[in-house]
Amino acid sequence: MSGRPRRRDVEFNDVVLPSPDGQGAYYYLRLRQADGHRAWLSPVWLDRVPRIKKEFRMTQAPAKKLDSTRRNLQDHYRNLEEHGFTVVPDVLTEDELKFLREALDEIYATYDPERDGLRRVEGYHFASNLVNKGPFFESIFLRYPIYDLVCSLLGDDCILSSLNSLEPLKGQGNQILHRDLPPGPAAGTIVVNSLWAIDDMNQANGATRLMPGSHRHPDPPPADEAGVLYAEIPAGSVIVTNAHILHGASANPSGGRRRVMHVYFTRKGLSQQLEQRKYLSPDVQARLSPLARKVLALDAD
Ligand SMILES: O=C(O)CCC(=O)C(=O)O
What we know:
This protein is α+β, with helices and mostly antiparallel strands. The chain contains seven helices and 15 strands.
């Protein structure tokens, strides 16, 4: 048989598809023609963003524990305002974590500072330019409620500064407490980071340290680090920080895996840590959604 079948586009509007809470679902499309012939499409997977339901745990150095449950965005806004950070559990699903662990290991192993823009950091597995590493990374920075929390601090027109990953190696990785930018009361918050735990994070494998409230004053870190919290959080959780806060990765004495993605944002008009327009391949740029293009600052205003 030769020739092309006649083409017909079909559009469905406002179709509500059921999906179990916090899970993806797949749907088949079956067509039956007037002449009785049938067509059956391969399953189409739809992801559903999980609701926040688990508790998170932070430990205070050296051993005091702070146990908190954050149920809704209002709590997160308050945490960000008062403490300079908040923890959102269950942002990534088990399937996503499995995928990310494999993907990041491959990306670490093939990292090329020339191609990916930033110099490798000694003592760590490191990767930059993650938006360019596959479809999963092309929209992850827009995920609810992380992007919404970031917008609440930086405005709806904020932009992605960089998407990196860092993992302290065994016996290495202790960073001094630092701020990504000094607190600037006049300018307000101009940088927000989100740290996405791909493995459970704890003091044995290099948990992030945070000094609550330090985003509001310019004092240097106390030499004994009194008051510092270790973010002991399960894989799949995300710490959103006002990046003017004192913070740092810790050493990893156990050598246990501690992969973290840094999804780092800044205000519109400020320079990006990695100029996305320069480092994203033409193929990736061509298939991004309009919102992703805006957040990546790909188009001149
Ligand atoms: O990954 C972490 O725990 C924090 C990393 C950090 O603060 C940095 O690289 O500047």
